[in-house]
Amino acid sequence: MARRKQQEEQGLLRRLPLFLLVWGAFSISMWVPSTYALVLNDHETSRSFLYSGLLGVIVVTMVALARAGRPSRHGVLGQLLTLLSTFAILPVFLAIPFHDALKTTSFLNTYFDMVSAITTTGAEMFPDPTRLSQPLHLWRALVGWLGGLVMWIAASAILAPLSLGGFEVTAQGQPGRIVAGSGQGEKVDSRGRLIRIAVTLAPVYAGLTVIVAILLMASGEAELTAVCHAMSIMATSGISPVGGLSGSTAGLTGEAILFLFMFFSLSRLTFSSDTATRGYTRLDQDPEFRIGVLIVVSVPLLLFLRHWSGAIEINSAENLGLALRALWGGVFTVLSFLSTTGFESADWEEARQWSGLGTPGMILLGLSVIGGGVATTAGGVKLLRVYALYLNGTRELQRLVYPSSVSSASGKNRRIQRDGAFIAWVFFMLFAISLLSVCLALAATGSSFEQSMVLSIAALSTTGPLIEIASEEPIRLIEMTVAAKVILCAAMIIGRLETLAIIALITPALWRN
Fold first, then answer.
1. Are 367 and 373 in contact (CB under 8 A)?
2. Which end of the chain is more exposed for a tag (fewer CB within 10 A), N or C?
3. Are the C-beta atoms of 443 and 452 separated by less than 8 Å?
4. 411-437: string of b/e by CB count within 10 Å (b at 16+)?
5. Where would you find the membrane-spanning parts of this chain (predicted)?
6. Residue 402 CA: distances (Å) to CA of 250, 252, 391
7. Is 401 exposed, middle or buried (0-12, 13-18, 19+ CB in 10 A)?
8. What is the C-alpha separation between 415 and 171, in angstroms, rounded?
9. Is residue 272 very low, low, confident or very high in pLDDT (cuts 50, 70, 90)?
10. What is the number of other CB atoms lying within 10 angstroms of the CB of residue 101?
11. Run of H or E residues at 213
């Protein structure tokens, strides 16, 4: 009986448009900050979120009834279009209670903030934490958390079948095309696959978030900060109600907890194996995880040794505790920006002084561009594409030394270093073109070269905290022009979906298949 009821519920979900399901989930989530505001006796904020949530549920219900029984005509590509709508259109609705509760800013600023949150960019439109009330901080973190969950599910259910989002490096088909062919049966299966993956991954995602929050509270963190940081670390959004880890009360223990859970953004094998490529089903054999660990170990170590080389020249003795703090600050911050989370360790300033680098923002920009693993909430170019280019480069160097040599790579690695490397290089070029286009557009609005570069990389790699710390002076988004804010919103959406997915959406031949 229970199994039959579950099948009926899944059948109902399959008949509903995907965008309505996402809209309904975000509408219901508005009651969380509404309840929290009610507990704090902030009745105006509570009413704003309560009424907006009710309005969303009513509209979703009415549209669902009107469209009942109409199946989707576009299969997985239609779901990809829904994903674009989620990041571009849904923030208009999400910004309504935020704007109504804040009252002291324009609607464009709140829309920008919601786009930043739902794309897990985490760019701060209101850098002063006291500007927002506690329920608004919770709402920003919750939107970022749900946006990360949407991307987590979409990567396996939508991007993987279309050979997008990094999967094109190892897939046998062309980006944007389903390998097994197309047909009406597959379109039905695509919705069923989406539901199955959502049912499987959502409890894992929520359970890990609860574990992080409990551990942070046990280490002495305030309840709201612990919950927001837990949601931010799983979504790699970097959203914080206290201005980052500098305002945290958990100290080194809290950083260690966050550091441990940031490893989930380096490889999909840390939480799931449903999208694992053949031959890479173990975490210790996964090239993404191994490259990520190599970067996390090597970059801080080089910064650390750079100081020691200078200390030897002047024969100075250093305090061991200070040295360990500097090393930890480097390791934590490197992993944080590699995962595109953007949390800065409280000891990062010490690491900067030890390295002697006047412009450490260049290192953070490079780490954010590399990004995390495929099918994770991290942004950036992705470690799998970096690995494909590394294999191809190694093979080309071997051919220079031994022109008649035959590659000794295994079947999967041979596929990556040839066709996969070509596709990865194409993506790098598209990323560079996107970066140049956004830079030129921002420069046309009056931004300097340094500001345009930092803003473009922060948006396209979904690493918003770069805006605060990558340049010599923090960039105040709220003071930028309307045109610049609109450009950054578009860049964040492109960075979250990636350029190949946008090209797939605007290619008519793919819709006719």
1. no
2. N
3. yes
4. eebebbbebbbebbeebeebbeebbee
5. 12-32, 48-68, 80-98, 142-167, 194-218, 252-271, 291-308, 320-343, 363-390, 422-446, 482-511
6. 56, 51, 16
7. exposed
8. 9
9. low
10. 24
11. helix 184-218
Please check whether residue 33 is in contact with residue 45, taking contact to mean a CB–CB distance below 8 angstroms: yes
Of residues 60, 61, 52, 27, the one with CA closest to residue 146:
27
Cβ 270 vs Cβ 289: under 8 Å: yes
| Residue 156 per-residue DSSP state | I
Please name the amino acid found at residue 361: G
Task: Name the residue type at position 150.
Answer: V
pTM for this model (two decimals): 0.90
Q: Exposed/middle/buried for 128, CB within 10 Å: 0-12, 13-18, 19+? A: exposed
CA angle (247 as vertex; 202, 298 as ends), nearest 5: 70
For residue range 407-465, what is the model confidence (pLDDT) as tens digits? 666 555 656 766 778 888 889 999 999 999 999 999 999 999 999 999 999 999 999 99
Instruction: Tell me the two tokens of residue 288.
Output: 């993404």
CB < 8 Å & 24+ apart, contacts of 267-271:
267/292, 267/373, 267/376, 267/383, 268/155, 268/156, 268/373, 268/374, 268/375, 268/376, 271/201, 271/204, 271/208
Residue 186 has pLDDT above 70, yes or no: no
Distance CA 330, CA 350 (A): 9
Give the least confident one: 10-14, 343-347, 388-392: 10-14
> Euclidean distance between the first and final Cα of the chain, in Å?
40
Report how far residue 86's alpha carbon sits from residue 92's, in angstroms, rounded to the nearest whole number: 10
Contact 16, 69 (CB under 8 A): no
CA distance 241 to 431: 32
CA distance 189 to 421: 31
Q: Is 47 exposed, middle or buried (0-12, 13-18, 19+ CB in 10 A)?
A: middle
Q: What is the DSSP string of 296-328?
A: HHHHHHHHHHHHHHHHHHHT----HHHHHHHHH
Helix (H, G, I), strand (E, B), or coil: what is residue 246?
helix
Instruction: Tell me the two tokens of residue 11.
Output: 């059948």
Helix/strand number for the chain, H first, E second: 23, 0
- What DSSP character marks residue 405? -
Q: Render pLDDT for 191-238 as a digit per residue (tens, 0 to 9).
A: 777 888 888 889 999 999 999 999 999 999 999 999 999 999 999 999
